[in-house]
Amino acid sequence: MNGSRAVRVSVAGSVSEYSLREDVRERATGIGLRGWVRSTDEGTLSAHLEGAPTAIDDLIAWLGSVPEVASVSEQTVRVEGHEQFAIRGVPAGVFVVQEHQATAHHFDFRLEVDGVMRSWAVPKGPSMDPTVKRLAVEVEDHSLGHNEFEGLAGGGGVIIWDRGSYEQGGRVPWPEALERGHAVFVLHGEKLSGGFALQRTGGGAKPQWLLIKRRDEQARRGSDVAAERPESVHSGRTLDELLGR
Ligand code: MN
Questions:
Q1: Which of 38, 98, 179, 184 meets the CB 3.0–4.6 Å disulfide criterion with 170?
Q2: How far apart (Å, rounded) are the C-alpha atoms in residues 70 and 57?
């Protein structure tokens, strides 16, 4: 993107209303800017603006004119190649991880996307260690109703190993990010939290992906959460206890 620049903007004032983030997104999109806006824990707004320098100046001038805004500070940052202007920090839906003893033992990792649970079978389970890449084999979508299932099934069994909400992230809008084979998201579960990425490595009938913890404050190097926290977040029992072994 020739002539593009990028700035990180911090906006202080009475700016925690959701409608202001919507206004920022609408205005930014309308003048061809890309990036994101999010609320921070400190009650400010943080925004990443990418595009033509005149459009960036226009948006910052408009922000300064909003009555609720007390101050706007900006810092030049690297252009990241965003393809949308997104509101970050807003849950996109639910996620669930179901530990499943079938013919083979695995964890089913499921993300709500457009009304269904997109699903991956992860033989070794998710990890909170960012140096660990876990194979995740894409499997058929499941219904949201299946998220509640825990019990014996088909000679094996299922426990609800983790669940919560998640945020869609990355530079590309969803579900296109999944179609392109690189999706970034933030989990808010009881065991899994913070940023993760799914990266497709192979196609075919059951495409192979890698599930990778991103490097952030929630990451725990050297940990193996699947082994350390075997219990169901629904019942407290382990899969072995459910199966009576
Ligand atoms: Mn399964």
A1: 184
A2: 17
End-to-end CA distance of the chain: 59
Distance 200 CA to ligand 1 centre (A): 19
Q: How far is the CA of 138 from the centre of ligand 1 (A)?
A: 11
Tell me how far the alpha carbon of residue 124 lies from the centroid of ligand 1, in angstroms.
12
CATH 3.30.70.100 maps onto the chain at: 5-87
Q: Which one of 3.40.350.10, 3.40.50.720, 3.90.550.10, 3.30.70.100 gives the CATH number of domain 5-87?
A: 3.30.70.100
Say how many CA atoms lie within 13 Å of 14 toward its Cβ: 3
Give Cβ neighbours of residue 96 (< 8 Å, ≥ 6 apart): 108, 110, 117, 147, 160, 162, 163
- pTM value is 0.91
Give 190-200 pLDDT, tens digit per residue: 999 999 999 99
Task: Report, as ranges of residue numbers, the positions in the chain whose pLDDT lies below 70.
Answer: 1-2
How far, in Å, is the centroid of ligand 1 from the Cα of 50? Answer: 41
